[in-house]
């Protein structure tokens, strides 16, 4: 109940602050797709369908580009076309996956179809996985970091493919994630996030030092980008539900088992939320109390970031607060739902 109540308090605050057009009230926030892209899903799932539609109308009008991408500043160049939050532009199709799933869920096919068509530009049909930074280019033969397959994007966009009914592509992507798990050379040290698309082997080097946390989750270091483990778990559990094939569930469990052995900070970091939902999903289908405990520890930590108004992360910039608050409210609701159906086995 506490998770559900926290979620409702957050979505209520986020909904009531919007203006009559379904936009953020501040001019600088209003210009940013990153301030609003996660919110329509939470509005829809919390019973605010009319407001969800209004927000999606505005997103379509102001941010949906002719090619199906979503851009805050199409007049700019480089990554700043997407958003002023570099982290969201780093994995270029990340925002796109969120909006595609929400639009499909809301039966807004006028948004989901062109948006998904754009996402498919990032699919490598040779390795059957999704890229993270630039569209697939057959002339490059999979060579180069920017053409590498990303476990995080395979989880996120594989789930998007499943939601769009593109089952064969979703299944192939899930198999790639199983390869990510089976090919890990040393889980006592790290979990490697990228695969060389020219060889099919995991990448253990070749990135800039400042980019390390996007390429590996170091088991002994604090403040890793643990969320990169979350979407693969979520998607693999959903693929298990879709097929009944145990190897998808086994791969999801292996990723969670690794996460549980990471630095204790994994349960205090403010962006482990996706792992929490993944753990709740796996807990429900396995009846394993270990995963139930993981989900609860992460959800309990999220609660500590919420202020009385319902908004989260009072010490962060407003744009990040809006982004993360919309995400927290969703995962808290979903964790509540999954754990409510948990039966220990």
Automatic annotation (TrEMBL):
InterPro entries: 6-hairpin_glycosidase_sf. One of its GO terms (biological process) is carbohydrate metabolic process. This is Uncharacterized protein. It comes from Patella caerulea.
């Amino acid at each position: 109940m506490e998770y559900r109540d926290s979620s409702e308090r957050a979505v209520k605050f986020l909904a009531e602050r919007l203006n009559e057009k379904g936009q953020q009230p501040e001019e600088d926030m209003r210009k940013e797709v990153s301030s609003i892209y996660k919110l329509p899903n939470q509005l829809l799932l919390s019973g605010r369908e009319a407001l969800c539609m209004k927000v999606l109308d505005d997103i379509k009008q102001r941010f949906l580009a002719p090619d199906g991408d979503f851009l805050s500043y199409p007049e700019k160049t480089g990554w700043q076309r997407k958003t002023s939050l570099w982290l969201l532009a780093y994995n270029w199709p990340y925002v796109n996956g969120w909006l595609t799933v929400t639009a499909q869920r809301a039966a807004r096919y006028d948004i989901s179809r062109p948006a998904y068509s754009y996402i498919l530009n990032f699919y490598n049909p040779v390795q059957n996985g999704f890229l993270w930074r630039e569209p697939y280019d057959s002339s490059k033969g999979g060579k180069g970091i920017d053409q590498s397959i990303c476990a995080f994007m395979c989880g996120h966009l594989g789930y998007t493919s499943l939601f769009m009914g593109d089952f064969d592509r979703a299944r192939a992507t899930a198999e790639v994630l199983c390869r990510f798990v089976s090919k890990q050379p040393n889980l006592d040290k790290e979990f490697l996030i990228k695969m060389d698309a020219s060889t099919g082997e995991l990448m253990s080097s070749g990135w800039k030092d400042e980019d390390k946390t996007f390429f590996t989750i170091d088991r002994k270091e604090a403040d890793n980008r643990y969320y990169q483990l979350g979407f693969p778990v979520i998607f693999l559990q959903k693929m298990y539900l879709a097929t009944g094939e145990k190897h998808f569930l086994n791969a999801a469990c292996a990723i969670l088992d690794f996460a549980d052995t990471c630095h204790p900070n994994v349960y205090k970091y403010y962006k482990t939320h996706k792992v929490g939902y993944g753990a709740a999903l796996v807990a429900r289908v396995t009846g394993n109390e270990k995963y139930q405990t993981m989900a609860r520890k992460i959800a309990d930590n999220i609660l500590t970031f919420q202020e009385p108004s319902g908004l989260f992360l009072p010490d962060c910039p407003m744009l990040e607060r809006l982004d993360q608050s919309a995400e927290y409210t969703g995962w808290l609701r979903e964790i509540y739902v999954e754990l409510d159906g948990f039966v220990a086995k």
